Structures are given as structure tokens and as C-alpha cells.
Amino acid sequence: MEYQFNAEFALKCDAEDELKNFRAQFLFPQHKGENAIYFTGNSLGLQAKNAREYISEELDDWATFGVEGHTESRRPWLKYHEFFTKPLASIVGAKPSEVVAMNGLTTNLHLLMVSFFRPEGKRKKIVCEGKAFPSDQYALRSQLRFHGLTEDDLIEIQPDPVAELITDDRVIETLEKHADEIALVMLGGMNYYTGQFFDMERITRKGKEIGAVVGWDLAHAAGNMPIKLHDWDVDFAAWCGYKYLNSGPGGVSGIFVHEKHHGQTEIPRFEGWWGHDKETRFKMPETFKPIPTAEAWQLSNAPVFAMVPLLASLELFEQAGMQRLREKSKKLTAYLQFVVEQVRESTGVELKIITPKDPERRGAQLSVIVPGVGRKVFDYLMENGVISDWREPDVIRMAPVPMYNNFEDIFRFGKIFEQGLKKFAK
Ligand SMILES: *Cc1c(COP(=O)(O)O)cnc(C)c1O
């Protein structure tokens, strides 16, 4: 498509967008009486309008039924987590038995590593990406120490200092080089900083080939990229619900465990009653019998109120469909790239996009280096109703989310960005 940096073009694209009505299903922060230009859905997704009604319904059912609500409420709390299974499975390309919504992301990474990081003899190392999200680094390092290992057993693949990216080839080379030492490959599918999407299928295949376990942190990938966890033979994965999936601040996370690991009592696991066989759960037998699905990793009964907004959002995902969202997403990100390049020309500021240009290697995000005046321009954007994200020392991250952002958002951002650069960059 021939992109143009003007309002008519953006409005025309919006008029032709078959997902355009989903925007009206969300609540936007307001700036001077108008919707702000919200580009931080990769950090905290917006509130679906029906979340409030669904929360009221749960409050009502609690008031009406008390404890009986576990079975009598309109969405019985006893099996509340089950309402998430189907929509989550289709978002991450899994069988329904392979996913469950529970806990927070870092908690889940730990629970899954208890089961799937089992260092033995020489095969004891973890591979991760350099400059991984801090929480992941803490989780990985503390898992190593927990097993009596040291940080020397963490292989961090460092990004290229100029491109700031880690090529898939680099990952493959690292796996080959340390083939008989790697116990676990644990990368972020989508890098939170650069917006790079790894070739998960290829890396998973190589990881399995060298005899390692392969797990993925999909914090920035779930609800953003088309993923096929089951077909790619991924062992496990976890993601947060509050980024692209709009579950609200601190909202519930999701996990994937491949079906080949289900029903096995010899897998080490931290156990809780919600992972125990449903038939005998309330007979309270002494011996734990895992549910033969990903639910075996659950510990506690579902935190209903923390899960409601996710339900509201997943309904919209089911209606929109990941494929259509992805198609729109490619166009939005490409348009944002075009606009940034236009602004680079019109202002002469050496803006540098660090996110890959290849649409298959990125999702709904662009990270742009704004040399010198980055912070000032970022503040200018915020003052003028563009909510984006700042990363030291000079990166502005923007996520045009296909569920609720549109072309006009990007056009309007472009104009404000251009003004800001002209004002501060001399
Ligand atoms: C957002 C994010 C987290 C956040 O972890 P929580 O446990 O949900 O607080 C962790 N890892 C990555 C890669 C993230 O992007």
C-alpha cells in the first residue's frame, strides 16, 4: 500500500477497517475532553467497557448467594478459570487442555521452572537473551541459585551493540555451541525493549534437537502475534494478562504446558488443591493426583475479581479473531514506521527505529531512538495527549494496538511528534 502522511488518508484507512468498531468497546484516558492517543497497550491494555458490568454481576452474585455462589452464580466460581481456556488457547495456538489462567507472570515462570528446569550433571545451563526484562533475569538467576548453581550457568545472548537486536542466527549458534550443557532455553518471544519477535518455531526446534527444554515468556507476544505453541512443540510458556490482553493492572497471567507433560506424577511440581483431580478434590485425599491438563499447575481457587476484566476482553478477542487483528496490526505498525520516516525527513533529526523492519519479526510496536532531545520530545508528546513509553537513555516506545488504535491516532501522533522535534531539536 502507498501510505500518505495526511488526515484524509488516515481517515480513509479507518473507514475501510473492518475492526473499527472495537475501538468503541474500550475506555480511553482523556486529554482536554478527547480520547488520548494511547500507545501503551503493551504496558497496560485499556479497560473494556463491559468489564465494569461483569464486576457488578460478580458483586451481586456474591451478595445474593454467599458461599453458594461457587456453584449457583451465573458464572460459577468453582470453575471460573475454565471460562478462559478456550479463548486463551486460540490466542496462543494451544489445545484447550494446555492452557490455564492463574497467578502473575513471574510467579508462573517460577512454578513452571520448578517442573521444567531440572539441571543434571553437565546439562545445567539456562539460555536467555541479554538485557532480558529485569523480572525474568531475577527469576532465572534465583532458580540457578536455588539449584546450587551460579550465574556462570546463565548464558546471556547479548544484542548486537549497533543494531540492538539478537538475530535468530545468533540464538541458533549459541544453542549449537553449548548443545550438551543447556538444560533450559528460556527467551522472551517478543523483546519488550526493541519489539523484536524471535523465530519461535525455529529456535524451539533447535532447542529440542540439542536435548533442552524450551520455555517462552510471551508477555509481549500473547494477543499480539500469531503463535502456535502446540504445533511448535514448545514445552511451556507464560504471559501476563494486562498488556495486550487488557486484564487490568496486575491482572491474571496465563500458562501453557504441552500436553505431552500432562498427567505425569514424576514431574516435580509445587502442588495445591486446585491442581488436584476434580472428582476427588473435596474428598480431600492425602495424595495429590494431578488433573491431566495444564490445570495441574494451579495452586489456589480462582481470584474471580482479578479475572473478570480479562473475561470481558477475551470476548472481544474471540469476536475480532487473532488473524484479523494481526492483519490490521501489520498495517498500523507499517503506517507508524512510514510516519516516523516522514518526520525524520521533514525535521532532519536522525531518528533511528530499532524495531526490525521485517513485518514477520515484529508486532504492534516501534521503538525509536530520538537522539539528544528524546526526553523533551517524550514530555511534549505526553503534554499534548500522546501516551507513549520512555526508556532510558533515548528510546520512545509506541504500541499501536489493533484492537483499539487506529490510523488517525498515528497521523495525529505524527503531527505532534513533528512539532515537538522542530521545537527542541536545533
Ligand atoms: C511485563 C513483563 C513482566 C512483568 O512481570 P509480572 O510478574 O507480571 O509483574 C515480566 N517479564 C516480561 C518479559 C514482561 O514484559
TrEMBL record:
- Its Gene Ontology molecular function terms? kynureninase activity; pyridoxal phosphate binding
| Enzyme type, top EC level | hydrolase
Which residues are annotated with the PTM N6-(pyridoxal phosphate)lysine?
K243
**Which InterPro entries does the record associate with it?**
Kynureninase, PyrdxlP-dep_Trfase, PyrdxlP-dep_Trfase_major, PyrdxlP-dep_Trfase_small
Q: Required cofactors, per record?
A: pyridoxal 5'-phosphate
Task: Write out the entry's keywords from A to Z.
Answer: Hydrolase, Pyridine nucleotide biosynthesis, Pyridoxal phosphate
For this chain's UniProt record, which GO biological process terms are given? Answer: anthranilate metabolic process; L-kynurenine catabolic process; L-tryptophan catabolic process to kynurenine; NAD+ biosynthetic process; quinolinate biosynthetic process
- Which pathway is recorded for this entry? Amino-acid degradation; L-kynurenine degradation; L-alanine and anthranilate from L-kynurenine: step 1/1; Cofactor biosynthesis; NAD(+) biosynthesis; quinolinate from L-kynurenine: step 2/3
Among Pfam families, the record links this protein to: KYNU_C
Q: Kindly state which reaction or reactions the protein catalyses.
A: 3-hydroxy-L-kynurenine + H2O = 3-hydroxyanthranilate + L-alanine + H(+); L-kynurenine + H2O = anthranilate + L-alanine + H(+)
Coiled-coil intervals, chain numbering: none
Q: What is its EC number?
A: 3.7.1.3
Q: What is this protein called?
A: Kynureninase
